Amino acid sequence: MAGASGSNASAFSAAELEFLAEDEMVEIVPNFRMEPLNFISGDFGPFIPQMPTEVPLWLAVSLRKRGKCTIRTPEWMSVEKLTQVLEAERDSEKFQPLPFHYVEISRLLFDHAREDIPDIYMVRSLIEDIKDVRFHKIGTGLEIISKERTYALRLKNLSAMEANIVRPFVTKALETFHKLSSSEMIQETDHISNRQPQATNRGPRGDISSDHLG
Amino acid sequence: MKIRTMKLREAHKNGENEESSFCSVLWDSTADHIVTASSADNSICIHDAVSPSNPPKFLNNHREGVTVLALSPNSTCLASGSIDHSVKLYKFPGGDFETNITRFTLPIRALAFNKSGTILAAAGDDEGIKLVNTIDGTIARVLKGHKGSITSIAFDPKNEYLASLDSIGTVIYWELQSGCTLHVLKAIAPNNASDVSAMNILAWSPDGEMLAVPGLKNDVVMYDRDTAERLFSLRGDHLKPICFLSWSPNGKYLATSGLDQQILIWDVDKKQDIDRQKFSELISCMAWKPHGNALAVIDVMGKYGVWESAVPSPLKSPTEDIPELHSKNGNGFLLLEEEEDPSASGSLSDLNEDSFGESLPKCRKRLREQGKDNDEWKEDSDDELDSIPKFESRKKPHHSKKDNLDNVKSGSRNVIANVGPKMQGSFQSGATPAKAGKRNFLCYNMLGSITTMEHDGYSHIEIDFHDTSRGPRVPAMTDYFGFTMASLSENGCAFANPCKGEKNMSTLMYRPFSTWANNSEWSMRFEGEEVRAVALGNSWVAAVTSINFLRIFTHGGLQRYIFSLDGPVVTAAGFKDELAVVMHVSPSLPSDEQMLEFRVFNIHSGTQPLRGRLPLTPGSCLTWFGFSDDGQLSSFDSKGVLRVYTNLYGGSWLPLFSVSKLCKSEENYWVVGLNKSKLFCIVCKSPESFPQCTPKPILTCLDLSFPLASSDLGADSLENEFMMYNIHLSQASLHNSIQKSIDEMAALGHDTTSLDDEAFNLETSLDRCILRLIASCCNGDKLVRATELVKLLSLDKSVRGAIKLVTALKLPNLAERFNDILEEKLLNEAVQNTVLPDIKSNCEGSTRTNNSPSSKFFTAPDISKTSDNVVAPPLNAPSSTLKRKQNEEGPAIDANGTREHITTTSNDILPPSNTLSSNFFTRKKNVERRANDTNGTKKHDETTAPGKTIEVRNSTSSKDINSVKESKSGEMKQQVCSRPSNPFAKASNNDTSSLLDSLKKMKKADS
């Protein structure tokens, strides 16, 4: 899998994903007073000392770097919640609902707001554990592809980073499977030009993209 | 019976392993204090029951867990028994350790004072019950007979018997006089030998006629006083054996706590349970409040709480008959004791022959000692930093002197004298109680916080500003005074401490944040008085002291003024030039209502702009007092009602927020500040009612709202909005006039336009709100209310909107009425405007000001675009777009118009106002004609109502292509018609201000 993510077929780099994740909203507690900020993406603020307000992560991080605010740890990042998620993750086949960018958000917060997170070591190790469990699940899940010939995979609650890592490999694999099976079809259906396979080719791919892999 | 939950707050930590332990709780006889202890904790806690905000006092004399507490009947002496085998006596409520009155070889489990407080019975895992003379500490007698460890002892109220119960369930009646066992009742109570947290208990009924003992069948069994015969039992919903019981002070009710973790309240006469409460932990001890209907409980985890109105309301209060019962019995007892006491103590010491020889001189010595102690204590009680108000501590020396004279006999009298609700003590807004080893707030406001933590006899104080970019950085300081009060402003901070004995006088210290001079910090010391409250303003420091002096100092430390205040201070707050002080007017009412008064002083001008009574919810005390962001006086009480002072109705307090309306029982709100529409507070998860210092608490914003009655309309939020806007509007207009009078120059400057815009925006939003209310009134078939609402609309356009609305709702009658109102309004305006020129021409201020209020009411710029959109009638959908266009046009024109007219002189206004009437009529004609045009074609003319309704409809729905042009011009004319009203409003406003100006000038000239 590491190979897959390292290959140039990967859709996004980690940095790009982080950039995308920076649009997620977090709550900050500012220690300055400022009128609302009017951005293209929306209005944020007003900023009143000690009064929590919601801003995009990039703004929160840049304010935090200047020592202008403290970032409130999102609810899902509490030790309690994470332990629950970890347990559920271990118990069930399914992926537990976590923020789409949970890897990136937690990483950014660990990097820039470590003082603001209570029990940071615990939280960090929990998130690592969850990540491991989920990647393991993906790994075992991918075996399905090789066992049964499927054209599509339904992976609910998959996060951005996870999707990004498996995307090149999985899409390619599925495509190949499809090609193989359709080539059989071609053999069966004689010589009809490669127009049809292409058309059928479209279908499953569309399926995949609608199933969170696109 | 419903099951409620009760908030409990932690008093004792249960060690690391969270094991259950036996905890005890007590009230003192005046219900000022609650005393708690836990067998897992070596400290005894004395909590302030009146204002729980004050920090509890910890007594850490025991080396191991405290298993039992007892308070002498006059509440001057506290006894505690511990696992460390000792029984200690303390002064109460001071908490000074007095003596180790006796020692055992095994842990103590039970203690009891007799009615007069002269004998303390102590027992535990040891063999016998020791009767100790509390005066000299001699052991009068040891009663032996129990096989198991003794868990409960009780003196009969008539002082003849002693009943004791051990853990294997044996009850023994002892005769005090002789020390003989009268009755031994074996195995009548549950055998709890194994369980430490649940102890067997017995209790005499307050009249002494019955002894209540937990039975074997999860019940309570009553035994006769003299014969020890089983009288009856109380059986009910307890699923497991009863582990604690407590008689209500009047003996009518009994509270029982079972191992099934619930408390039942019994009506003893009816032998029936009347109420119950379930808890998450086993309740190990309970105590009835000596007066009032409340039960203090503590669970095995060391969490205590007070169950208010434990006896349901229709029933007699558990203390209702207590005064007469007390006075009757009390007097009887007193007499009895006075006769009996000497003989009793004589006989007791007679019996104890060894100690007889030395007991007398010892007794005297002790007497002298006690006298000395009492003197000391008199001072101590003066210094008391917790909430005991001054007058109370003055009363006490008198009592203690009497105590000196006739030892302890005044106990019951003391009780009678002090019955009644307490006056709350002084406090500092934004302070939290001190907790050992933890940081607490001395001051927390919208600006910043001051925190302190005691450490080895001195404290470490930190000052932080929320806005780190603007507030100065203040280095932390070490405090050798032990400051308990502080106040913080942009310019500096003030600290004060109460005096502690003669050496440590009360001190006020002020620390400016930025000054050009070195050493600009200053402090004042007060001899014979102590600071009760401090407040800061922009250039002054105020301190209110225990002798009701209000002292005002300047920024630099100059003593500026000293006033005498009327009553004991409760709190003080400062804002810019204004200082507000709250004080007591009189003792609180028997219904437990504090009688408070507030005064506002303007330090800069030396005036007292406001004074009056401070309203509070009955049964509550003031918990926060201060100014809002825009300088309005506000108060918050312990029942969670926020009140804001307004000048409406000659100065009154508006309840603008009520916690009970939020219906969130699991949260407590700790107020920090407020602005015009929001309340800023820190949410504390109950049972905590104070925020922790670390992590730094964050503010939560809550909307202000009136505690409205639940109306049949079902549009509470709208009604609330409506009232809010009204208040804001009245305040804005007031503010405007003040602002203008202050701004001496340029009443026509651009400042005023912005202010007017604000008022104007308010008006439009008010109208919007009223229209929505009208809609809901119509839907709720409250037509009269709707008509009243229409009269309140300030803009003509909104009235038209309302008419449109009701037509759409198919209420032709109402539309007709509204139309009448509109016409009346327009006529009124016309009249006003024709009068206007005269007024304008002569520059007589007084006539104008006379006119201004009424004219202000009617004249206002007319836009209500949103309201129109909101209530766009569904019938003529195509027209709505057109209309919207018009409406959008409307405001633009209007805004221009207003702007223009603000700067135009009165001459410019004259022509339109002259043409007004003619315009008015031509428009009407137009409209009528159009009405005729459309009459046939319009489908929505279901109504046969002639003329007016139709007219209106057409004037508003201009979809008739023929009349589009016409109507547009009509609209324009309308604009013209109504426009003169705008400048009039401005002009009148300006005029009022100019009058105020002139008044102000006159005043200046005078001074």
TrEMBL record, chain A:
Top-rank taxon: Eukaryota
GO cellular component, one term: GINS complex
Subcellular location: Nucleus
GO biological process: DNA replication; double-strand break repair via break-induced replication
UniProt region (Disordered), positions on chain: 185-214
The keyword Membrane is assigned to this record: no
Annotated DNA replication complex GINS protein PSF2 N-terminal domain residues: 14-71
Major localisation: nucleus
Keyword Iron: no
CDD domains: GINS_A_psf2, GINS_B_Psf2
Biased composition (Basic and acidic residues): 204-214
UniProt-recorded name of the protein: DNA replication complex GINS protein PSF2
Organism annotation: Dorcoceras hygrometricum
Automatic annotation (TrEMBL), chain B:
UniProt-listed SMART domains: WD40
Any single Pfam family the record assigns to this protein: WD40_WDHD1_1st
Ranges of the WD repeats in the UniProt entry: 59-100, 143-184, 235-276
GO MF annotation list: chromatin binding; DNA binding
Region (Disordered): 343-409, 840-1007
Cellular location(s): Nucleus
Domain WDHD1/CFT4 helical bundle, chain residue ranges per copy: 743-826
GO CC annotation, single: nuclear replication fork
Start and end residues of each WDHD1 first WD40 domain: 24-306
Signal peptide bounds: none
The protein's name in its UniProt record: WD repeat and HMG-box DNA-binding protein 1
